[in-house]
Specification:
Distance between the termini: 26 Å
Helix content: over 70%
Radius of gyration: 20 Å
Strand content: under 5%
Largest sheet: none
């Protein structure tokens, strides 16, 4: 499996920001109100960050052990669990970028007129965007933890 790429993640974030901004601009241009923002979304995204990191911690512990000590470890890493954790990390990286685009699109709609309630919504959208960046970053970190270090016995080609 190939890991998530930073360039692809940035592209997802930019494209989703533009698409969300255009759709929300069209929606609010017809006299409708923008969808509500809530702190629940921020807390939910932060909870996802915690879940992704918690899922990756056993991989990190295993990776930090000396290869000779891995044989005698009481708990071995199940390859299926490792693969699922890697997929979770990749999904978190891309999902965080997609969520980031949604919140940046909402912030861009509010940007021209930051007065009163709109200022509070803008700040909340930016905090939610920060939590989405944290989710994407957690995905990249856990993805790195899931990499298997090369064996010392392998000969490098000339």
């Amino acid at each position: 499996m190939r890991g998530a790429r930073i360039s692809t993640t940035l592209l997802i974030g930019v494209v989703s920001s533009v698409v969300c901004w255009v759709l929300l601009d069209s929606w609010t241009g017809q006299g409708n109100t923008a969808p509500p923002l809530s702190w629940t979304a921020v807390f939910g995204t932060v909870a996802l960050v915690v879940v992704v990191i918690a899922a990756g911690l056993p991989m990190r512990r295993w990776q930090r052990t000396v290869p000779g000590e891995r044989v005698g470890m009481k708990r071995r890493i199940d390859p299926l669990v490792a693969a699922r954790t890697a997929v979770l990390a990749k999904a978190a990286a891309y999902g965080g970028a997609l969520i980031l685009g949604w919140y940046l699109g909402q912030a861009l709609i509010l940007l021209p007129d930051l007065v009163g309630d709109r200022l509070g919504r803008f700040v909340l959208a930016m905090i939610a965007a920060g939590s989405a960046v944290a989710l994407s970053a957690a995905g990249f970190v856990v993805q790195r933890w899931c990499r298997v270090p090369p064996d010392d016995d392998e000969k490098k080609p000339d």
